[in-house]
Design goal:
single chain; 198 residues
């Protein structure tokens, strides 16, 4: 009889614990499953992003910032810590540290495709270089030196570095630099000689 009471009491304690903490257990499990899903899908979806385009050797970009220092490199699969958003994420761009007001230069000849501003990226300029190749310059000052449709040459000033990208910067100036080929984001170092930017 005493044994039955003890076992009933244990079962009751376990049930009580599960009822009390079921929400937290389910939430922790859901977060774990979500984290695993993000890592797996990121690896699968971006496996092609690290390939070098066949015509990359024909084009060589100049740095979007003179004497720029790279603060964050490209990573399609490895998570990097974003101190502005306080989270871990892949970083499909190269970020250059640049004092606010530093000239931002066109990396290659092309036509200004778009100019936009949003809270996370700041002011963004996209340049179409033809043949499916596009460069994207983020965290720029809202006052830019170009307009949509303008043709720019390598080294032309298109805007100024700023700290407007709240999703990237924590108050310091920078330039967020992306390269797109045929609708896919790729590693800018396929075209940009990193050694010449330091």
């Amino acid at each position: 009889m005493e044994k039955e009471k003890i076992e009933t009491s244990k079962k009751s304690n376990v049930k009580g614990f599960i009822k009390k903490y079921a929400y937290y257990i389910a939430l922790a499990f859901l977060i774990l499953v979500l984290a695993i899903a993000i890592v797996v899908t990121s690896n699968l979806a971006n496996s092609e992003d690290q390939t070098t385009p066949t015509n990359a050797t024909n084009i060589s970009f100049s740095s979007p910032v003179l004497n720029g220092t790279i603060s964050k490199g490209f990573s399609a699969t490895e998570l990097q810590y974003n101190s502005a958003l306080k989270l871990w994420e892949v970083h499909k761009a190269i970020d250059f540290t640049a004092e606010v007001g530093t000239d931002v230069l066109a990396s290659f000849d092309g036509t200004i495709k778009s100019i936009s501003t949003n809270l996370l990226e700041g002011t963004v300029i996209e340049i179409d270089h033809g043949d499916g190749l596009i460069t994207k310059y983020g965290s720029l000052d809202s006052i830019v030196n170009v307009k949509v449709g303008d043709f720019v040459k390598t080294g032309d000033v298109i805007g100024k570095a700023s700290s407007t990208a709240t999703g990237e910067t924590a108050g310091e100036g920078e330039v967020h630099f992306e390269v797109w080929k045929d609708g896919n984001i790729i590693d800018p170092s396929n075209y940009l000689d990193i050694s010449t930017t330091k």
